Amino acid sequence: MSVPLRQAIRVGSYVVKQHLLGRKRYPLVLMLEPLFRCNLACAGCGKIDYPAEILNKRISVQEALDAANECGAPVVSIAGGEPLLHKELPEIVDRLINEQKRSIYLCTNALLLEKKMDLYKPSPYFTWSVHLDGSKAEHDKSVCQEGVYEQAVEAIKKAKAAGFNVNINCTFFDGTDADRAASFFDDVMAMGVDGITVSPGYAYERAPDQQHFLNRKKTKDLFRAIFRKGNGGRRWQFSQSTMFLDFLAGNQAYHCTPWANPTRNVFGWQRPCYLLGEGYAKTFTELMETTDWDKYGVGNYEKCADCMVHSGFEGSAVKDTIRNPLKALKVVMKGIETEKPMVPDISLDKQRPAEYVFSSHVEKAMHEIHEEKDRLKQGRAAAE
């Protein structure tokens, strides 16, 4: 595992404190989406098909700082959309680091990274998280635009030369070849990146391409095949817990802990998680106290049946690591098991059927936007 030492100590101390306090649910990483607008149109993305009025909305600097304070998570992952399109993002990042001492992962497709790099400062609390979904052919296909891989690789090299921490984050979809994935991991390690964040693709209900998302069986088979080629995964540096990687290989049967990675975006605090938008809360406290968490997760809800994504299960893996350190150490030392039978998966027999309520949230947001426009127009008219 490759995580900056200061961050590892701070996060570890935070998690131990939560356990000593007996807290059942607590945040680990704040998923902050300051905008949905993007400069790419990836077929597997469920974030970019909003009306223009919503794509034009931005979280303000103060809203971002307040969200981090409300939540209290030691790590903030800034995603989108493409975050570098947000003009006030350098101030948000600077103040989250220097005023709140948060560890920041700034996710980007890297198309604007070289242009914007000078607006940010290297820091042990700051990491560029560059999106790469495989080698040149796989990545450019994934983002539906040629030349993106080469531009991202060049930006990674320049960011490393400038003294920044740089990770790559990759999402694997159905049809991913284990040999090519292992070769891709070798390639990014050779670039000098500090770590890899990996996750199986999850079926956003509004994504244009619904045919290439992995189910849980295919996810486990794929990651076993990849880790088998990398000495149980030890050939590469991952910026994730070893137990989460062990989970991807079918050796752990974790339940989802969506509150570990709460999402704050232009709508508010998203229920129940980064991937499912089934309502929004105005405050973090409201999110935690009024969300019926037992309604969601594998075995509880049809939409969650195939999910093994890091935003849902990394918190579960961290909790298991704290509770069972010797088990976790054994996996670190021996590598991820790829040959023994997989552990039984969670039964889906009692899951409730999917509800499709996303459009009502968009309609509500559009109504509020139009009401605000009308109020501003009436205010200008009265002033005249």
Automatic annotation (TrEMBL):
Transmembrane segments: none annotated. Residues 20-234 form the Radical SAM core domain. GO terms for molecular function: transferase activity. Its cofactor is [4Fe-4S] cluster. Keywords: Iron, Iron-sulfur, Metal-binding, S-adenosyl-L-methionine, Transferase. It comes from the Bacteria. It holds the Pfam family Radical_SAM. This is Adenosyl-hopene transferase HpnH. It comes from Dongia rigui.
